[in-house]
């Protein structure tokens, strides 16, 4: 149990800058999920914390101790790998005991800890098997067990669920969360899956091109995305973006598609005519007369709800998620864009603009 | 998936197989047959008469203390060559695996000795370790170590072991290299995070995971030391001094070509044939199983 702090951690491979200075403070027992598309630097960040890569500059502190230059062995961390990385020639018991044996723990204590972890993870019956005799889900549990028995200061997870099938993934996701809460170990979890990120994290780090685009709680990230990238990355289907310009006085925005939107939470600073990007989530769009006409080109029925893709006057595409079954949806749909559902971003930089 | 080609008639498939069958027949089955046939005959030294003697040649060979001594020499030689060649190759492969810059050049250079003919390799070593004209031979004598492999049997053995092992290192190196590269990086990283230092990682993770490769190479190396080192021994020591470096394969040559005892030489060949068949069988059994952990 420990805190983790990253101070302007940078990394470059040759001339390629992979991380542009990451700052992060993780509280004791907190679960931080680092999420981003592939190539955003999230795995590199995790590997730097693990000590498998060295940072080009910046410092990593675990529990206040500078570990930037230390070997992985000296950092007192445990990691769960994407492909589990179990030792193929060792039994499940030996896999879990390996790290304890290296630390010179007494066999009786090793036995006790492994048995305890195995019971917790329900792999007690598998202790004599070799990894190749296990299913994907079982291997995942063993990898977790190997991390748990060490009772480390920090858990690191490198996309541990991405090799599992969808059903198992949901199950393991909940289990990891339960386990992490129960053990109270500070954790860093890397994933590209936004649902995993939302459900697992106390806080999220949304990474984009080597930068932390936003560090906040899942609901904050969802409700007040810091820029258009975060807004489009979190939430499914993705947020709609509509071009607009600021009206004189900053109290309203004129959509390219026609209507003018009143900025209900207060006027924005900026000259009249400043380009804006207005974001609205598909689930916030309602059906109703007096709005825009959506020319429907694809209907995706999801059972109790329906996702509709189409274009609005002016040619911009719009995705709408309606809590109704798909039947009876015509070619043209009248939709209303509620004013208070809009997120206002700078049209040029993509940064969120809050009321002045 | 195996593709089955269907031929019309039987002439074409036979024609296509003919070159291989001819080579196998002329260079393998015929001499092997001759050896087996010869092992049951006794011939006078001038080749004027021969008679069938059953298993007498075998009985004689196996009762001959010289033959048994040579057998022991072969065992010592083979295991020393295999051990030396395997450990040197493993060491070099681990180093090459670590190297980032110039790794390819390094690997290429390490493969060269394999292309050197046994006799040439022997001459290289001869020029290095000859007591009078060899660089290292002179150096050793200069240091007060009485080095003369032509007189000292142990030194002769050491020299042929080194020369034979040197030639085999390249082959082993390639296999170890491939073996190392097939170990997932994440497994080694997991071990590092678990607290294992490089040496510990090597002995608890890398070495066990290379066991299948090592076993395969052990068999190949023993077969090599048994049968493919004739040229090296012939050029370096002629099996001497005395019988110090006369391995079984060299003894076949000495008894057959120099002493003109064809019956005995043939019987020895047949015994070697049985040994190589056994070794090959072990290897095939093993290769079929592939992974054993």
TrEMBL record, chain A:
Coiled coil: none
CDD domains, A to Z: ABC_MalK_N
Stretches assigned to the ABC transporter domain: 4-234
Keywords for the protein's UniProt record, in alphabetical order: ATP-binding, Cell inner membrane, Cell membrane, Membrane, Nucleotide-binding, Sugar transport, Translocase, Transport
Any one GO molecular-function label of the UniProt entry: ATP binding
InterPro entries registered for this protein in UniProt: AAA+_ATPase (IPR003593), ABC_transporter-like_ATP-bd (IPR003439), ABC_transporter-like_CS (IPR017871), ABC_transpr_MalK-like (IPR015855), ABC_transpr_MalK/UgpC-like (IPR047641), Mo/tungstate-bd_C_term_dom (IPR008995), NA-bd_OB-fold (IPR012340), OB_MalK-like (IPR040582)
NCBIfam families noted in UniProt: PRK11650.1
Similarity-based family: Belongs to the ABC transporter superfamily.
Protein name: Sn-glycerol-3-phosphate ABC transporter ATP-binding protein UgpC
UniProtKB/TrEMBL annotation, chain B:
Membrane topology term: Multi-pass membrane protein
Boundaries of every ABC transmembrane type-1 domain copy: 75-283
One Pfam family matching this protein: BPD_transp_1
PROSITE patterns referenced in this protein's UniProt entry, alphabetically: ABC_TM1
Classification via Gene3D superfamilies: MetI-like
Subcellular locations according to the entry: Cell inner membrane; Cell membrane
Major subcellular site: membrane
Ranges that cross the membrane: 12-32, 72-94, 106-129, 156-180, 201-227, 266-287
Keywords: Cell inner membrane, Cell membrane, Membrane, Transmembrane, Transmembrane helix, Transport
Superkingdom classification of source: Bacteria
Subunit description: The complex is composed of two ATP-binding proteins (UgpC), two transmembrane proteins (UgpA and UgpE) and a solute-binding protein (UgpB).
Protein function: Part of the ABC transporter complex UgpBAEC involved in sn-glycerol-3-phosphate (G3P) import. Probably responsible for the translocation of the substrate across the membrane.
Family: Belongs to the binding-protein-dependent transport system permease family.
Entry protein name: sn-glycerol-3-phosphate transport system permease protein UgpA
Provenance organism: Falsiroseomonas frigidaquae
Name of the gene this protein is made from: ugpA
């Amino acid at each position: 149990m420990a805190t983790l702090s990253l101070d302007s951690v940078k990394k470059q491979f040759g001339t390629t800058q992979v991380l542009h200075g990451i700052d992060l403070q993780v509280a004791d027992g907190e679960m931080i999920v680092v999420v981003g598309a592939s190539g955003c630097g999230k795995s590199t960040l995790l590997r730097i914390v693990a000590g498998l890569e060295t940072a080009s500059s910046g410092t990593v502190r675990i529990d206040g101790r500078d570990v930037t230059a230390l070997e992985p062995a000296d950092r007192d961390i445990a990691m769960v790998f994407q492909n589990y990385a179990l030792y193929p020639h060792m039994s499940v018991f030996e896999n879990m005991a390996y790290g304890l044996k290296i630390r010179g723990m007494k066999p009786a204590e090793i036995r006790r800890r492994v048995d305890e972890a195995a019971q917790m993870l329900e792999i007690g019956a598998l202790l004599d098997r070799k990894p190749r005799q296990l299913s994907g889900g079982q291997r995942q549990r063993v990898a977790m067990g190997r991390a748990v028995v060490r009772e480390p200061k920090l858990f690191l997870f490198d996309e541990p669920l991405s090799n599992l099938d969808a059903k198992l993934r949901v199950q393991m996701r909940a289990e990891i969360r339960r386990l992490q809460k129960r053990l109270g170990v500070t954790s860093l979890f890397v994933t590209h899956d936004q649902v995993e990120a939302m459900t697992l994290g106390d806080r999220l780090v949304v990474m984009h091109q080597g930068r932390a685009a936003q560090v906040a709680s899942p609901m904050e990230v969802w409700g007040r995305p810091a820029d258009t990238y975060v807004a489009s990355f979190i939430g499914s289907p993705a947020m709609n973006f509509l071009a607009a310009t600021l009206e004189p006085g900053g109290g309203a925005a004129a959509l390219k598609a026609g209507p003018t939107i009143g900025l209900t939470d207060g006027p924005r600073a900026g000259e009249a005519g400043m380009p804006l990007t207005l974001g609205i989530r598909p689930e916030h769009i309602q059906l109703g007369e007096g709005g825009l006409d959506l020319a429907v080109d694809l209907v995706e029925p999801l059972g109790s709800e329906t996702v509709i893709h189409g274009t609005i006057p002016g040619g911009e595409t719009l995705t709408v998620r309606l809590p109704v079954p798909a039947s009876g949806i015509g070619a043209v749909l009248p939709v209303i864009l509620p004013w208070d559902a809009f997120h206002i971003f700078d049209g040029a930089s993509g940064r969120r603009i809050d009321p002045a | 998936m195996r593709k089955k080609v269907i031929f019309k008639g039987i002439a074409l498939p036979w024609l296509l197989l003919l070159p291989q069958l001819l080579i196998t027949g002329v260079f393998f089955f015929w001499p092997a047959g001759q050896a087996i046939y010869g092992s049951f005959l006794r011939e006078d030294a001038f080749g004027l008469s021969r008679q069938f003697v059953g298993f007498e040649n075998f009985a004689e060979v196996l009762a001959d203390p010289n033959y048994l001594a040579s057998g022991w020499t072969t065992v010592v030689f083979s295991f020393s060559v295999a051990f030396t060649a395997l450990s040197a190759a493993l060491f070099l492969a681990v180093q090459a695996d670590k190297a980032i810059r110039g790794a390819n050049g390094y690997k290429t250079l390490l493969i060269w000795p394999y292309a050197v003919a046994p006799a040439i390799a022997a001459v290289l070593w001869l020029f290095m370790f000859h007591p009078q004209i060899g660089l290292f031979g002179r150096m050793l004598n200069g240091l007060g170590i009485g080095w003369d492999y032509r007189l000292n049997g142990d030194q002769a053995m050491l020299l042929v072991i080194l020369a034979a092992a040197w030639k085999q290192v390249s082959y082993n190196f390639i296999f170890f290299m491939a073996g190392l590269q097939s170990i997932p990086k994440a497994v080694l990283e997991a071990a590092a995070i678990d607290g294992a230092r490089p040496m510990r990682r090597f002995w608890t993770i890398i070495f066990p995971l290379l066991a299948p490769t090592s076993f395969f190479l052990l068999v190949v190396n023993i077969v090599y030391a048994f049968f493919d080192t004739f040229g090296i021994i012939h050029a370096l020591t002629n099996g001497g001094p005395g019988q110090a470096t006369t391995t079984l394969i060299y003894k076949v040559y000495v008894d057959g070509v120099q002493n003109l005892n064809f019956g005995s030489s043939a019987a020895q060949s047949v015994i070697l044939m049985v040994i190589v068949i056994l070794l090959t069988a072990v290897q095939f059994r093993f290769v079929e199983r592939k992974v054993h952990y």
